[in-house]
Design goal:
Blueprint: E1 17-24, E2 27-34, E3 41-43, E4 46-47, H1 48-51, H2 55-68, E5 75-81, H3 85-103, H4 105-115
Parallel strand pairs: 3-5
Antiparallel strand pairs: 1-2, 2-5, 3-4
């Protein structure tokens, strides 16, 4: 009895990238740094200049690349979720810095550490307390006498 079975073989393409996670407030950025590609930075499928608008934002996200002198040398694909625009921007900067530190640790890590790019900013929204009327620090007004 001959059984005619066909084996399906999945062909997966070997993609070489370095993965890092950056965080700020409640934002999380998952960064993939592709060493074999050169080019731009994509955030959630858009160019980073279209996702984070303005010259100030551009100076902020290019700062770790300028520190390491690698603008245009690597391709970054970033997925960012949570928080607001500035929280997401901080998470992207942290993720880019961490991925660069993994590419060439002996060269980039000390540069990025000195400029404070590898340190996660621990500040977050303060939790709301009971009896404060919906705010974290608001208290009931006290009588004068």
């Amino acid at each position: 009895m001959a059984i005619n079975s066909k084996k399906t073989i999945k062909k997966t393409k070997e993609v070489k990238y370095i993965f890092a996670v950056g965080r700020r407030k409640s934002a999380t950025a998952k960064v993939r740094l592709y060493t074999d590609k050169k080019g731009d930075i994509d955030v959630n499928g858009k160019p980073i200049g279209k996702y984070f608008l303005g010259e100030t934002a551009e100076n902020l996200f290019l700062a770790p690349l300028r520190a390491c002198n690698v603008i245009g040398k690597y391709y970054f694909s970033i997925k960012v979720t949570g928080s607001g625009t500035m929280g997401q921007l901080g998470a992207v900067i942290h993720g880019i810095s961490r991925s660069l530190a993994l590419v060439e640790p002996e060269k980039f890590q000390s540069l990025l550490r000195r400029r404070g790019f590898l340190t996660r900013d621990p500040r977050a929204k303060e939790r709301r307390k009971v009896g404060t009327g919906g705010k974290a620090r608001r208290q009931k007004q006290s009588p004068k006498r």
